[in-house]
Design goal:
The radius of gyration is 39 Å and the shape is elongated. The chain is 39% helix and 30% strand. The two termini are 65 Å apart. It is of the alpha+beta class. 23% of the residues are buried. The strands form three sheets. The chain has an eight-stranded mixed sheet with strand order 9-8-11-6-5-13-16-15, with no helix packed on it. Strand 15 and strand 16 form a beta hairpin. This is Permease. Keywords: Membrane, Transmembrane, Transmembrane helix.
């Protein structure tokens, strides 16, 4: 980052040196104009020189303040480009010095319950005597078997034979096959607790999810039957930790499950099966609970708890109830469906912009905040009749810019939000001390805080417009309240 900052600074200095020749030409033109005025009207030229000499200290002071403002903007430009280059290199690097989130947009598909049945199928084929004689090879008829088709993978038993009849040769195949009949769940309760994490170094935001679910289904037959429960592992979830599957109070290990997440067992007539599933993982941006098919839902209860504002995918199920704490904290989204038929999914998307894009907005707003401070601080001083020297103003602007720069540097060590807040507070404090601090009774603390808070509005996740509007209206009212020349004239 330091090397990038030096490279950008050298480029900026070269750009300033390129402006030296035009500035020298402007000064030469002004000198020639003053010389021409002396030749035409010596007295007016003398008064002009005297006026310039009288106002020279004040003009030079404001010129120095303008230079300090330009230096502050230059520092912010160098900082913005250096931070952007660091994040770009970090995102495209092959190796990293910290762990990356191992999950993405997680999709948990609803499980399936089925009734395993065995059915017997019989097929016969009659070959006339002349055909049977023609296809017989070495007096063996079993050479015909490959041409009569092969059974499927679910075959439990297979019997084949040839029988000679007066009509010809009759081939008979009897197959015992296993089939599955889908069962509806009597009740499905799903809980997902999502907690977002802001990693240090400008890495992408992710959430840690704790998933818990319980399902109940039953044997619909009046005789004992074999039931099967299949729980699909979530997609886009990365590594699952603490995965447990409990059936009727018995916890099953991975070696007890067919294919890792399938249970099969005998259930008495009318008996019910209770299944509990739990696991934890990491994800980002979105979480979905996908119904596997259009089915009749007797009782479905899905609850998602998240500590970040959520949106919902178009044409997905909208929550039946939402709870947002007034004092902040995790919000609760709930979907309750009873006796419904649907193929829509529960799909929640969280507001999460690119870290690089967010930092670019913040750093561009910091330059605007310094210019705003250059306007508000003199206006505050005029309305309060407080003396303000140009050099003090320029130093305060440079201090504010240095605080913003510190926030950009801290993003390499701290999460994005606390790093930028610390930088803004440091810049406001440094500018406040330069302007007089506790020694000055009417220090423009409010304009400083408003300018320092301006870039932070872009870290609120979509509420920047509202915050900036409220901030501008508040400052306008405070400034106009102390502008004595705008007070209504007394009758």
């Amino acid at each position: 980052m330091v090397q990038t900052a030096l490279t950008v600074l050298l480029g900026a200095l070269r750009a300033l040196l390129d402006l030296a020749l035009p500035a020298a030409l402007v000064l030469a033109v002004l000198a020639l104009a003053l010389g021409g005025l002396a030749l035409i009207d010596r007295e007016r030229a003398r008064r002009t020189l005297h006026g310039l000499g009288t106002r020279a200290p004040q003009l030079s002071g404001w010129a120095l303040a303008a230079l300090l403002l330009g230096g502050a903007l230059l520092v912010l430009n160098v900082s913005r480009r250096a931070v952007d280059a660091r994040i770009a290199a970090q995102q495209s690097a092959r190796y990293a010095n910290a762990a990356d989130p191992d999950g993405g947009q997680t999709v948990q598909t609803a499980p399936r319950a089925s009734l395993v049945e065995n059915r017997t199928y019989t097929r016969s084929l009659l070959l006339p005597n002349d055909v049977a004689t023609r296809v017989s090879v070495d007096k063996s008829l079993y050479g015909l078997l490959p041409y009569l088709g092969t059974p499927g993978d679910t075959v439990q038993d297979l019997r084949e034979n040839f029988t000679r009849t007066p009509e010809g040769l009759r081939y008979t195949r009897t197959v015992l096959m296993q089939s599955e009949r889908p069962l509806d769940f009597d009740r499905s309760v799903v809980r997902a607790d999502l907690r977002f994490v802001e990693p240090a170094g400008g890495r992408g935001t992710y959430y840690t999810a704790a998933f818990q679910a319980s399902y109940r289904f039953r044997n619909p037959l009046s005789t004992p039957a074999t039931l099967r429960f299949a729980f699909p592992l979530p997609g886009g979830s990365g590594t699952l930790s603490g995965f447990t599957l409990t059936v009727n109070g018995q916890a099953l290990s991975a070696s007890d499950l067919l294919g890792g997440s399938v249970w099969e067992g005998d259930v008495p007539a009318g008996g019910s099966v209770d299944v509990q599933v739990a696991y934890a993982h990491q994800g980002s941006r979105a979480w979905s609970y996908q119904l596997s098919r259009r089915e009749a839902i007797k009782d479905l209860d899905v609850t998602v708890t998240a500590d970040r504002p959520a949106k919902f995918q178009r044409y997905s199920l909208f929550p039946t109830s939402q709870t947002h704490p007034a004092l902040g904290g995790p919000s609760t989204l709930r979907w309750q469906l009873k006796n419904a038929v649907t193929a829509q999914d529960v799909a929640v998307v969280f507001t999460q912009g690119s870290v690089r894009e967010t930092l670019t907005k913040v750093h561009l707003a910091q330059g605007l905040a310094v210019v705003l401070a250059a306007l508000l601080i003199p206006l505050w001083a005029v309305t309060r009749r407080t003396p303000l020297s140009p050099l003090t103003l320029g130093g305060a602007l440079l201090g504010l810019a240095l605080g913003f720069t510190l926030g950009g540097v801290l993003t390499a060590y701290l999460p994005l939000l606390p790093a930028e807040i610390l930088g803004s507070l440091a810049g406001a404090a440094l500018a406040w001390v330069i302007l007089g601090g506790p020694r000055q009774a009417r220090t423009p603390l409010l304009p400083l805080l408003a300018s320092a808070a301006l870039p932070l509005a872009f870290l609120t996740g979509g509420h920047a417009g509202l915050i900036l509007t409220v901030l501008a209206a508040t400052l306008l009212l405070l400034l106009l309240a102390r502008a004595r020349w705008l007070a209504p004239a007394s009758p």
